[in-house]
Specification:
With about 350 residues, the protein is of the alpha+beta class. Helices cover about 50% and strands about 15% of the residues.
Length: about 350
């Protein structure tokens, strides 16, 4: 543990304990043990700890998620709200216990939730990808994915209306126009192309989407029972936006073979081919390119990502290059801001 991480943990430990003592009965008997930072992604700061009640000799393994950025309050409310709703409808998510959107204890909004012990699906893929177990894991992954997209959100419309950004389905053209405004000069050809093609796309009913459905966000309790985590990007929209994002991540971080396996398995479960996936892969690639570009040039923290996320992106040059290749293969247009960014990143890392 480096000095900065040690200081962060020390600065969190006492305020967190005071908060929990206020929220729980028998406050004098409650202590925190084994507080550790376990963040691996670009967005929230994640810590694990054990809450011990010395009076009743009970302990509970928990996760603390701290939300950065200007939209931290909204994002924390959305993630807590959708996880709580899904848990009550018997969906495979960890239990959530406390949400604090103020800053009276910690300087940023945070959520406290159940910790699930077990390997991620990515870890399981790594050891079984080349044997029959690998096919079973892909089937599990896609079954969870389709179960989510088949979840009848209309039955929960009243509850969803109380959760930020989940009161009504998103319309992709409106999203593209919003992205266009943040991109600036040099991005216009991409948005013009996608908006012009959209009327030709086969319409699909909106569903609940996860927003970042990949094997790292599925934890297998004891290596068996799956739980889906990281719901900050949940939205009501076309399921193909979710599926294309997953395929893009699998293909550019791992192999396109795995991404294609997921698509084929998803189609097998549906019993039909999924139309217009090249279009949605183009949308997914554009979203990834724009988010990385803005994070590096404007600042990741302003986009709701954790401190240091932009530096992680700069080190992730091969991924960005692959995403740009996907975009160009499907769209056939050049993005000067990305070409310039790639050149700058290559120069800064010595990969010219």
């Amino acid at each position: 543990m480096d000095n900065s991480t040690s200081w962060q943990i020390e600065s969190i430990a006492q305020p967190l304990l005071l908060y929990l003592q206020e929220r729980l009965s028998g406050r004098d008997n409650v202590v925190i043990k084994d507080l550790a930072r376990i963040t691996t992604g670009w967005e929230t700061e994640v810590y694990s700890f054990r809450l011990v009640d010395r009076g009743n000799e009970l302990s509970l393994d928990l996760i603390l998620r701290i939300y950065p950025g200007d939209d931290a309050q909204v994002k924390s409310q959305r993630e807590f709200g959708i996880m709580d709703l899904l848990k009550r409808s018997n969906f495979s998510v960890p239990a959530v216990f406390f949400l604090e959107t103020g800053t009276s204890r910690l300087p940023k909004p945070f959520m406290i939730m159940e910790r699930i012990w077990g390997p991620s699906l990515r870890e399981m893929f790594g050891s079984h990808m080349l044997d029959p177990k690998g096919a079973e894991l892909v089937a599990l992954f896609c079954r969870l994915f389709t179960d989510l997209h088949r979840w009848n959100w209309c039955e929960h419309a009243d509850a969803l209306a109380q959760i930020p950004s989940l009161s009504c389905p998103l319309h992709l053209p409106a999203e593209l126009e919003r992205w266009r405004k943040s991109g600036g000069s040099g991005w216009e050809p991409a948005f013009d192309l996608l908006l012009a093609q959209y009327p030709k796309i086969t319409c699909q009913s909106p569903c609940l989407t996860h927003g970042d459905f990949h094997p790292d966000n599925i934890i297998l309790e004891g290596g068996l029972k799956p739980y889906i985590i990281d719901w900050g990007g949940a939205r009501l929209q076309d399921f193909r936006i979710d599926l294309a994002w997953t395929m893009l991540l699998l293909g550019t971080y791992g192999s396109w073979e795995l991404g294609d396996m997921v698509l084929r398995q998803y189609e097998t479960i549906l019993g039909k081919a999924i139309p217009d996936m090249p279009y949605f892969l183009t949308v997914a690639a554009l979203k990834r390119l724009l988010s990385i570009y803005l994070s590096v040039t404007v600042g990741a923290e302003q986009l709701g990502m954790r401190e240091g996320a932009a530096a992680m992106m700069v080190k992730d040059l091969p991924h960005l290059q692959k995403v740009y290749e996907v975009f160009q293969d499907h769209a056939g247009v050049e993005l000067p801001p990305i070409r310039s960014l790639l050149d700058d990143m290559a120069a800064s890392t010595g990969n010219q």
